[in-house]
Write a structure and sequence with these properties.
The protein is an alpha+beta fold. The chain contains 3 helices and 11 strands. The N terminus is likely disordered.
């Protein structure tokens, strides 16, 4: 769900401490920006969390979070779903509209695939996700991607 934050509160907080959490409970950095709501540009900002971003989809179906399959195909581990584990690596697939995520969950490696309809957005996501390797998958789902709309 989008969180609405008064713009005055945002600018006052940024002036006193520019690195503090102002978006969806996270710290602001290169990928975490606000977009101003078009109905009232001076009053509110909207967060669009990665997990709810409309472009993180393939043929109309959301692709976040991916299904996590064991990275070792000979493993007896089952595939998992959900915002679990910690992101270790992002592997781009330069010839298509998908990227692969490697996570660690309970000391085991899993791989997931994000599919996109938009190849350019896919390339942006590879960069954004790569910049956030080390975060939990839930923390990545919390990232504000409103500037990518």
């Amino acid at each position: 769900m989008d969180e609405v934050i008064p713009l005055g509160s945002l600018t006052n907080s940024l002036q006193t401490n520019p690195t503090q959490a102002l978006h969806c409970g996270q710290s602001i950095d290169e990928e975490m920006k606000y977009s101003v709501d078009s109905k009232n540009r001076s009053d509110i900002c909207r967060c669009v969390e990665l997990r709810n971003h409309p472009l993180i989809s393939y043929h109309g179906l959301p692709s976040w979070p991916p299904t996590w399959s064991p990275a070792n195909p000979k493993s007896d581990l089952k595939s998992l779903r959900g915002e679990i584990g910690r992101l270790k690596y992002v592997l781009p697939n330069k010839t298509s509209d998908r990227c692969f995520l490697i996570i660690e969950h309970e000391n085991e490696a899993y791989i997931g695939c994000l599919f996109f309809d938009d190849r350019i957005f896919c390339a942006q996501m590879v960069t954004i996700l790569g910049n956030h390797a080390g975060l939990t998958v839930k923390e990545i789902g919390d990232l504000d991607l409103s500037r990518t709309l």
